Amino acid sequence: MLGGLPEDSHGRPVRTVSVDAAWSWFERWQATRDRLLASPRFQRWAAAFPLTRPIARRRARQLFDLCAGFVYTQILLACVRLRLFEILAERPQTTGELARRLSLSRESADRLLAAAAALRLVEKRGDDQFALGPLGAPMVGNAGLVAMVEHHSVLYGDLADPVALLRGEHRDTALSRYWTYASSDRPVELQADHVSAYTRLMAASQPLVAGEILDAYPLRRHHCLLDVGGGDGSFLVSAAQRAPDLRVILFDLPPVADRARTRFAAAGISDRATAVGGDFHADPLPTGADVISLIRVIHDHDDVQALSILESVRRALPPGGTLLLAEPLAGTRGAEPVGDAYFGFYLMAMGQGRPRTRAALEALLRLAGFRRPRWVRTRIPLQTGLLVARSAPDSPWR
User: Fold this and answer.
1) What is the number of domains present in the chain?
2) H/E stretch holding 146
3) Residue 277's closest CA among 298, 296, 258?
């Protein structure tokens, strides 16, 4: 060592830069950038300079969209409640025709159609005709999307004062009352009228994710599937239709399980479908399945509860049995706002749970005694991410 400096293999001094110094330089650069971006003078310059003008305009539009987002959602809600998309699915129509069919004045119809066209929900054809737009067409006949648009009225009421929610000053929320199991000390004692609203919403929205999961992970290799917290059995009906030899079991609260039995009978699968009522926080899960699914269940629960559910699932599986864990993941590339922003605040309003990254879920799986969790790609990761894991023997593998 020469003069306190480390030496290379030839005895020559080597100058090094500490990690702290490197980070200090990077942090100073970030601070300078932040001051520039916050400067009105720099903003005016960036909007005028040809090379930065497109970036400045795009960011201005993005910021305005954040400010105007609630208005956009209400335009969509108006289109849904007026059945505009179904009407336009028949054929393109003029403003006058649409005004009559929507029971609106000509002026109000013109205002709605102009707004919907700006949001690409409808398209203007010619001088005075409107047709379905690229974002309105997927709404036609999509009961799940329509149900979610209507359901958001409950969420928006709870988010009227987001600071109060963040500070824990507003705990008796409409969402916690809607998802009754979230606010009940004894969810197993809930009656049919307590669970009917959210069960209908789950049934309507389930097709949005069921196809993604079943396409990504075919179930023909298994003999029995248990769906924990499976609502009215919509996912199990889809699974049974794809795998004719598969037996299916549903486990949910007693009044929800009653609805599932009716659904199984209507689908003609009662001979190989069973619905069991109980509380997965307190009751053991049915055994006999070699694959168990948890679809949008874990993100509804805090870490202690989530770990307890996963441990119950592992105990119900034989060694080497399979868990399908489907969740809207935080940190999904290209869909970051869905996990961290939308579900983060939705679950806060609901009163429990949080979105988790793939790494956080894998850590919970390992703690619960699952091994080799692997990510299975779905076609639309914005809707759901899928993790598949195998159960270890009763002495949990770490």
Assistant:
1) 2
2) helix 143-158
3) 258
Strand runs (DSSP E) across 65-116, as ranges? Answer: 93-94
pTM given for the model: 0.79
d(CA 239, CA 341): 31
373: helix, strand or coil: strand
Residue 233: alpha-carbon gap to chain centroid: 19
DSSP 8-state code for residue 394: S
DSSP structural state of residue 189: G
Tell me if residue 388 falls in helix, strand or coil. Answer: strand
DSSP assigned state of 112: H
Q: Show the tokens assigned to 274.
A: 């069973």
- Each residue of 99-143: pLDDT tens digit? 999 999 999 999 999 999 999 999 999 889 999 999 999 999 888
User: Do 259 and 113 lie in a common domain?
Assistant: no
Q: Which domain holds residue 356?
A: 162-391
Helical pair 234-242 and 254-267, crossing angle rounded to 10 deg = 30
The answer on 335 and 284 residing in a single domain is yes
The C-alpha torsion from 340 through 345 and 351 to 356, rounded to 10°, is: 0
Asked if 191 and 230 sit in the same domain, the reply is: yes
pLDDT in tens, 34-74: 676 666 776 676 667 677 677 767 877 878 888 899 999 99
Which parts of the chain sit beneath pLDDT 70? 1-23, 29, 33-34, 36-39, 42-43, 45-47, 49, 52, 56, 182-185, 187-190, 192-195, 382, 393-398
Q: What are the φ and ψ backbone dihedral angles of 215, each rounded to 5 degrees?
A: -70, -40
Residue 150, class by beta-carbon neighbours within 10 Å (0-12 exposed, 13-18 middle, 19+ buried)?
middle
